[in-house]
Amino acid sequence: MSKIALITGISGQDGAYLSEQLLEKGYTVYGTYRRTSSVNFWRIEELGLLDHPNLHLVEFDLTDMGSGIRLLDSSGATEVYNLAAQSFVGVSFDQPLTTGHITGLGAAHMLESIRTVNPAIRFYQASTSEMFGKVQAIPQTEDTPFYPRSPYGVAKLYAHWMTVNFRESFGIFGASGILFNHESPLRGREFVTRKITDTVAKIHVGKADVLELGNLDAKRDWGFARDYTEGMYRILQHDEPDTFVLATNRTETVRDFVSMAFRGIDIDIEWSGTAEDEIGVDPKSGRTLVRINPKFYRPAEVELLIGDASKAKRLLGWEATTSLEELCRLMVEADLRRNINGTSF
Ligand code: NDP
Ligand code: GDR
């Protein structure tokens, strides 16, 4: 009999890759999506999974605990990957309560549902490097103190500690992956890497003139999402429920990522100006291709993230295998293809 997994948030980036990997491993997968006025399955469609016989798409909202209980009961899942969240940091400042309900309390709903239906179900919580926020140590490990800097980070910290608490109080197999930023061609376009690669592709084909960004100095530890979803699986197969950092241990600025992406279309951006009037220019044509728009600044910023995933390497045999250059190339190529074919999401 195949193992049964439930993935909340299958319409998101990680849900798509994780479902692909679990199906390849022979799992039956129940993937949850929200009721919306138009369907949002482009990621699983792009991976060719939409008609997979072992993939069951089920309507579900994390804020409705009763439906979580019924879903656990009817699916017979023995592993739950809780990936659903209001995951955009910027929006969490405008909608802190919605973010708290979904991203924070939503995880508690799943934990309570597991406790009610079958406490033997293994639970993975999608925790985040945003919990480190104003960082207290470099690099960040499982032992680094938390200091979240956004309503999203605060909500995730609640969900993280509820997972640890249910592990310690009720013996539930609650595992938490503190994942640093991970990107891919399936990344949502509001996140900075995909915004950059999509706009670079649009500039290349003449559909956009300029890339407008906020804080170019923010530093992130960016990896490839497919490596990280494999890490989630390994975290849930470990003998003991535990907390693991997944990261690349390399950090770069947003500015560096912009330069890297433009190199993908043979432009070597030259930077000039300071802070809020900085611009990026194509030295060959003299065109300004990058400029600052203050509307993309955040009320409080996470300036620097760099993770140390040695524990995951030691206990799970996991490490990030895709370089940032390779990741950026994959993303620019995918966006060029989509913009040329007119299939851009
Ligand atoms: P996405 O934003 O791409 O996906 C989030 C998913 O959650 C979507 O399927 C979304 O559905 C769903 N969702 C949102 N609200 C609800 C709700 N009320 N009920 C049910 N489902 C809901 O995120 P990622 O795939 O990038 O990330 C997966 C998880 O990992 C998230 O929890 C994120 O916070 C966390 N994380 C991500 C990192 C990253 O770098 N990608 C790093 C660390 C943690 P819909 O499509 O309808 O919006
Ligand atoms: P982040 O990702 O906040 O780290 O959260 P995002 O890509 O949104 O921002 C990264 C950094 O880039 C700066 N930035 C901009 N960001 C966006 N989105 N748009 C811009 O125009 C822009 N200009 C500069 C930001 O200020 C920030 O410093 C992601 C999400 O996936 C979370 O769910 C996850 O938990 C963390 O990564 C780890």
UniProtKB/TrEMBL annotation:
Molecular function as annotated in GO: GDP-mannose 4,6-dehydratase activity
UniProt entry tagged with the keyword NADP: yes
Catalytic activity of the protein: GDP-alpha-D-mannose = GDP-4-dehydro-alpha-D-rhamnose + H2O
Domain of life of the organism encoding this protein: Bacteria
CDD domains per record: GDP_MD_SDR_e
Entry keyword annotation includes Lyase: yes
Domain NAD(P)-binding: 6-331
Cofactor: NADP(+)
Keyword vocabulary terms for this entry: Lyase, NADP
EC primary class: lyase
Enzyme Commission code(s) on record: 4.2.1.47
Stated role: Catalyzes the conversion of GDP-D-mannose to GDP-4-dehydro-6-deoxy-D-mannose.
NCBIfam families: gmd (TIGR01472)
Family: Belongs to the NAD(P)-dependent epimerase/dehydratase family. GDP-mannose 4,6-dehydratase subfamily.
Name of the protein in its database record: GDP-mannose 4,6-dehydratase
Organism whose genome encodes this protein: Sphingomonas qomolangmaensis
Protein's gene: gmd
